[in-house]
């Protein structure tokens, strides 16, 4: 009986692999959604079999739902990453997690219905739905962790097994499926009282599955004329950011607080970021410079050439400031024709020199519509001398800006 079960298990693994790889291979013809939907549809069967359906093999008791179907799903997710990228593979990962949260939520509401026996001899087993819902939720949470881990480990192993894609798949599968077996057995033992034999038999089966799927994937990639997948040149942290949508969050954060006209940060972003930057500099014992930059005679540009021309001068000035500063410096539009520049770890003397360089650059590069150079006046403050709060630095820089304008404009005043 054990040998017959083993043969059937291998046939099931082969059938699963051929079917799933077939629709993955045809994803450009039939759409990637078919592959993702197939992964999702299988999840209930995987969890049900893992909970109640066991067979005996020569080396122990196992469930095909866990050893064949779940292991196969995890390897399919890794193969999808290899064939596409992190931005594509995160769709089924988060879709499965969201779907199972929905299952548990709906199960909660279903328990409050008053049911009737419309079909003779059939009664809804809501306790079973509850149990399956929580197992599916736990299994999907594990799958989420497993999927992130197997992709990141696969990339990390690329630095060890540079020419062997099979070893990268196999070792990744062994490590992550071992973790998964520990996590899922804990839930089975807690909810269903699964014996320890199920853990060891399932673990051995998953190790065999990792080996079998690694071989099958290598054969498929060879058929696809991909003998060795190159190691991604991207840092692991970037891949993790893609998988967890962090790059979307960072992009949204970067887009928020932007001035619509000039593209530099706006005043709200200044009020949010500057205190944190200043605190960090003070904690490190380093000075921070703050400049207020005002475009000279800007009202004259608007009056003589119109507001569109004035907007153009502001955009060019902002772009010029960004080009002239270090990558760690920040430019904010403070209001009207005024900009604030923050420079970390800059002494009062170095800050004054940098402000003077900005003044000269603007005068050299920016022209009004009539060809007259655009000039700026700059007031500069430094946490070394002028205060330890944003308001103190702004007040000091603003006073020096007005002193620069009263002294004839197109100049820097730092003290």
Automatic annotation (TrEMBL):
Entry keyword Transmembrane: yes
Keyword presence, Transmembrane: yes
SMART domains, sorted: GGDEF
Superkingdom, taxonomy of origin: Bacteria
Membrane-spanning segments: 6-26, 33-55, 61-81, 93-112, 132-154, 166-191, 203-223
Catalytic activity: 2 GTP = 3',3'-c-di-GMP + 2 diphosphate
Enzyme class at the top of the EC tree: transferase
EC nos: 2.7.7.65
Pfam families: GGDEF (PF00990), VUPS (PF20973)
CDD domains for the chain: GGDEF (cd01949)
Keywords, ordered alphabetically: Membrane, Transmembrane, Transmembrane helix
Domain GGDEF: 286-415
SUPFAM superfamilies, A to Z: Nucleotide cyclase (SSF55073)
PANTHER family tied to this protein: DIGUANYLATE CYCLASE DGCM-RELATED, REGULATORY COMPONENTS OF SENSORY TRANSDUCTION SYSTEM
UniProt protein name: diguanylate cyclase
């Amino acid at each position: 009986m054990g040998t017959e079960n083993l043969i059937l298990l291998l046939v099931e693994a082969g059938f699963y692999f051929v079917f799933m790889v077939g629709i993955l291979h045809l994803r450009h013809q039939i759409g990637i959604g078919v592959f993702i939907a197939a992964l999702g549809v299988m999840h209930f069967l995987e969890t049900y079999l893992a909970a109640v359906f066991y067979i005996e093999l020569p080396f122990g008791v196992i469930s095909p739902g866990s050893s064949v179907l779940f292991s196969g799903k995890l390897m399919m997710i890794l193969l999808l990453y290899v064939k596409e990228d992190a931005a594509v593979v995160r769709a089924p990962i988060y879709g499965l997690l969201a779907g199972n949260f929905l299952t548990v939520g709906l199960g909660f509401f279903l328990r409050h219905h008053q049911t009737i026996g419309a079909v003779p001899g059939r009664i809804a087993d809501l306790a079973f739905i509850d149990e399956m819902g929580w197992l599916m939720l736990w299994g999907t949470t594990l799958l989420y962790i497993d999927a992130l881990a197997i992709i990141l480990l696969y990339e990390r192993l690329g630095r060890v097994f540079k020419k062997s894609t099979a070893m990268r798949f196999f070792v990744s599968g062994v490590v992550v499926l071992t973790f998964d077996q520990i996590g899922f057995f804990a839930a089975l033992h807690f909810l269903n009282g699964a014996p320890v034999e199920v853990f060891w038999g399932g673990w051995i089966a998953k190790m065999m599955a990792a080996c079998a799927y690694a071989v099958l994937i290598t054969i498929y990639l060879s058929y696809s004329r991909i003998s060795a997948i190159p190691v991604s040149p991207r840092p692991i942290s970037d891949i993790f950011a893609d998988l967890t949508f962090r790059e979307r969050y960072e992009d949204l954060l970067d887009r928020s607080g932007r001035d619509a006209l000039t593209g530099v940060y706006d005043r709200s972003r200044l009020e949010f970021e500057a205190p944190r930057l200043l605190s960090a500099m003070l904690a490190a014992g380093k000075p921070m410079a703050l400049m207020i930059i005002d475009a000279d005679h800007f009202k004259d540009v608007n009056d003589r050439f119109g507001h569109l021309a004035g907007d153009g001068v502001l955009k060019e000035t902002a772009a010029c400031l960004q080009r002239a500063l270090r990558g760690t410096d920040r430019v904010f539009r403070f209001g009207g024709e005024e900009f604030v520049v923050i420079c970390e770890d800059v002494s009062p003397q170095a800050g004054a020199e940098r402000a003077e360089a900005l003044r000269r650059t603007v005068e050299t590069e920016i022209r009004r519509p009539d060809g007259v150079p655009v000039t700026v006046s700059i007031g500069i403050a430094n946490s070394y001398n002028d205060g330890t709060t944003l308001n103190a630095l702004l007040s000091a820089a603003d006073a020096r800006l007005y002193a620069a304008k009263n002294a004839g404009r197109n100049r820097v005043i730092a003290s």
